[in-house]
Amino acid sequence: MTAEDRISILLGNPRKAIVVLAIPLLLSLLVSQVNVIADRAWCAGLGDDAMSAIAVVTPVYMTIVGLGSGIGVGASAVISRMIGAGDTGKATSTVAQSAIFGILFGLVLTPVLCLGQDGLLAIISKENILGISDEYMLPYSIFTVVIVFNGVITGILNGQGATQHSMYLTVIQALVNIALDPLLIYGLDMGLQGAAVATVIATVVSMGLGCLLIISKRTYLPISRSSIAYDSTCMGMLLRAGVPQMLEYAVLWFMDAVLNCIVLMSPEGSHALTVYSVPDNLMMLVVIPALAIGSASIPVASSAFGQRDRSRMEQSFRFSLKVGVMVVFVLAMIVELFPEQFLYIFSYSGEMLDNRPEMVAMLRVMCFYIAFFSFNPICSGYLQAMGHPNRSLIMALWRNALLITFYFIAIQQEELTAIGYALICGHAIAAISMLAVTLYTEKSLKIDADAQGDIPS
Q1: Bigger pLDDT: 274 or 117?
Q2: How far is CA 248 from CA 245, 302, 394, 424, 437, in A?
Q3: How confident is the model at residue 456 (pLDDT cuts 50, 70, 90)?
Q4: Residue 349 vs residue 224, higher pLDDT
Q5: Helices within 12-162 (DSSP H only)
Q6: Cα separation of 34 and 234, whole Å?
Q7: Does residue 332 have a pLDDT over 90?
Q8: Model pTM?
Q9: Tens digit of pLDDT for each residue in 152-207?
Q10: Which residue, among 32, 10, 58, has the nearest Cα to 171 in the 3D structure?
Q11: Which tens digit of pLDDT belongs to each residue from 392-419?
């Protein structure tokens, strides 16, 4: 498929466009999550403390990933909006501004994390796992700029409808990581830090190939030397779209660290965190279809916005929401029926085998929150496409405030499954709120469009 064919699909039937764009994203996210699961499966042999350390550091790592992805999502929305409006000049300039901002932001963030890592982990970890958590996080801190820029590249490709290319990069990254895990963790006796080093090496490979791709002529908007110049107009559009999305992802993932801290406050301590985090990681696998559809809907709805086609925007959202939530619900029910089979690879060693009954009980409860969670990426993507990423950020803050409240209530209970029920309550209220805000924003856009005779730019 040529670059022009991908743009033709992006600007065509919204249902077809979402399906075509979502399939590579689905495979990409699936491979990425399988990669995470493989990491945990290999590290399960290192014991309970290692798994707890992963649970502590992962939200910080995902926050770094989220900051890069936030820039990428903002870039995707602006690029596809400009393509829809027929302004390839501004679209190409936005690609360049995204790359410039991503590199500069990553370079600034890298020393901040390297110098602040010890203090951060002292706050979010417990003393018995502080040392191993510090070792595990160090490679991520040193290579922060690589992790951030890798997410920017993905967004640049997705904005051009080149989700197939971003899928290839993710698959390569996952394969390199999975191949290196056993070698570094056990072969070179690096332990848990070996898993982080493997992830970093795989990310460097993916980023390098992505850089080669966006300067080649295989994409619709290739970067050339002449296009790498500061453009205040395009940078302004990128920041207005990307910064709120960065903050939303930062809230989403770093709040996981806050929730982990609350779990660690329970009488069970790091054991409770292991029992909670492993099933929750499986739930992230279940929600992948909604994440893929939500990501695919951003360039589709944004291009419709650029075309000033209100009907196409609305169709893309309703189709995305219906399909995304339904698929996630069905997958969750399958996991509900076979929880032990899904948890097997995490509980094959002595300590983790003893944890299996509690993890099964937690997983059974968690299956009922994930369909509510799936509203978030789809509604958030539509708000971004409508030019209101700030509202999505506000709803992310509201959602996490609810979860913190319910978590504090849950840890007072004797049963660890109370944490699962806290997730259900928090995400159910948040889903209703998110949908209400999204529909209100769409209605407001209709009123403005009717008053002006078109969708406002």
Answers
A1: 117
A2: 5, 19, 8, 21, 16
A3: very low
A4: 224
A5: 14-43, 48-84, 88-124, 127-142, 144-159
A6: 36
A7: yes
A8: 0.72
A9: 998 888 888 777 888 888 889 888 988 898 899 888 888 888 888 998 999 999 99
A10: 32
A11: 889 989 998 999 999 888 888 878 788 8
Let me know the angle formed at the C-alpha of 426 by 425 and 429, rounded to the nearest 5 degrees.
85
Tokens for 54, please give them: 């992963």
Cβ(121)–Cβ(90) under 8 Å?
A: no
DSSP per-residue letters across 84-125: HTT-HHHHHHHHHHHHHHHHHHHHHHHHHHHHHHHHHHHHHS
Residue 390, exposed/middle/buried by CB under 10 A (0-12, 13-18, 19+)?
A: middle
Can you tell me the distance from the alpha carbon of 199 to that of 136, in angstroms, rounded to the nearest whole number?
A: 11
Question: How much is the CA Rg of the chain, to the nearest whole Å?
Answer: 21
Per the CB < 8 A criterion, the answer to whether 38 and 205 are in contact is no
Which of 26, 49, 37, 285 lies closest to 166, judged by CA? 26
Residue 364 has pLDDT above 60, yes or no: yes
d(CA 311, CA 442): 11
Output phi, psi for 191, to 5 deg.
65, -145
In Å, how far from its chain's centre is CA 377? Answer: 9
Dist CA 362 CA 83 (whole Å): 46
**3-state helix/strand/coil string of 238-304:** HHHHHHHHHHHHHHHHHHHHHHHHHHHCCCCCHHHHHHHHHHHHHHHHHCHHHHHHHHHHHHHHHHH
Query: How many other CB atoms are found less than 10 A from the CB of residue 229?
Result: 10
Average pLDDT, the chain: 82
pLDDT tens per residue across span 79-107: 888 887 777 888 888 888 888 899 999 99
Cβ-in-10-Å burial (0-12, 13-18, 19+) of 443 comes to: exposed
**In angstroms, how far is CA 8 from the centroid of its own chain?**
27
